[in-house]
Design brief:
Chain lengths: 162, 162
């Protein structure tokens, strides 16, 4: 068993001399699967999200408006909110924000309404690695699917390594 | 473009290259925390000063999707004294992050009409939003494409006491 650092009372603690583990460009291979990330969608999320841009009337926050906007009396979660889920998905896989914040890209197409009550599963895999202008890029095919396995958003994400 | 406001902006009014409005934003820790909360992202890097100090960034940074919380196209429209007349449905979002955003940054965002086209008898429009810091460096960019329906939004009426 690996020897752990411990206090004088015998409590095992993290060894701060050890380097923090982060995925590097060289550790990532084409075909690697990205750890899935699950998120439950609720109407509260859409309402709270709507407050940041002053939405108190659209089909994202009001069922009657949803009927007129989308043709169904169920509030649809904002596309930007669905898009935003790709951030924790990528950051948790990379174990670092750096390749995501400094040169990262998310290109997502919305192909189906996401309603409150759905459970989204963000999935993806690495499809390409390339070097351009002294930077290294990892390109991933990504999608979010609902609890029935229907894809609701598809696209690519790019992580950038110095 | 004040003439848009009287009747609400419609797809036909907008021309590729139109500059819609500019938003100036002095970033505070609360703005970043609010963005993370509105996306239900519990990563403490976005709101916990002590955690962030120990991170590779040495302090709080904004999440990748910060632009989606603060520089949304409807906000650009309203800052320009406009609103859209018809319901829109999200089609695609491309978000790119180039540099970290930190509390104290003074950001300037501009929104342009990047593209518009008709596909399968549907009117599509792409906004381009560019956010730069006080040094003029681009920190984030977003392309947001929507399908503009012909169904008019019924904005809430102002209450009267007649």
């Amino acid at each position: 068993m690996e020897k752990r650092k411990e206090t004088k009372y015998g409590t095992k603690i993290a060894d701060e001399d050890k380097p923090v583990l982060r995925l590097s460009y060289d550790e990532i291979n084409v075909g690697d699967e990205i750890t899935p990330f699950t998120r439950y969608m609720t109407m509260d999320m859409a309402i709270k999200h709507g407050r940041i841009y002053g939405d108190f009337y659209s089909g994202h926050v009001d069922k009657e408006s949803a009927r007129k906007q989308f043709g169904v009396a169920r509030t649809a979660i904002q596309g930007a909110f669905v898009h935003g889920g790709f951030t924790p998905f990528m950051v948790r896989w990379l174990r670092s924000e750096k390749p995501w914040i400094c040169g990262g890209k998310a290109d997502i197409k919305f192909i189906m309404a996401v309603n409150s009550g759905m459970t989204l599963r963000y999935c993806g895999k690495v499809i390409e690695k390339k070097e351009e202008d002294n930077k290294k890029y990892v390109i991933c095919e990504v999608w979010a699917e609902n609890e029935r396995g229907e894809k609701v958003a598809v696209g690519t994400t790019t992580a950038c390594f110095e | 473009m004040p003439e848009y406001q009287a009747k609400g902006v419609v797809w036909e009014d907008l021309e590729v290259g139109d500059e819609i409005s500019t938003i100036h934003w002095f970033v505070t820790p609360d703005d970043i925390k609010m963005a993370a909360e509105s996306f239900y992202d519990d990563n403490p890097l976005y709101f916990d000063k002590d955690f962030a100090k120990e991170s590779e960034w040495g302090g709080i940074i904004a999440p990748f999707y910060f632009l989606d919380a603060t520089f949304r196209w409807v906000v650009f429209l309203s800052r320009g004294g406009m609103r859209h007349q018809n319901h829109t449905i999200n089609a695609q979002g491309i978000l790119e992050s180039f540099l970290p955003i930190r509390p104290g940054d003074r950001l300037v965002g501009k929104m342009f009409v990047d593209d518009k086209f008709v596909k399968r008898e549907k009117n599509f429009l792409t906004w381009r939003m560019e956010v730069r810091n006080e040094d003029g460096e681009m920190v984030a960019r977003k392309f947001w494409r929507s399908y503009w329906t012909d169904r008019e939004i019924e904005f809430p009426k102002k209450e009267t006491y007649e």
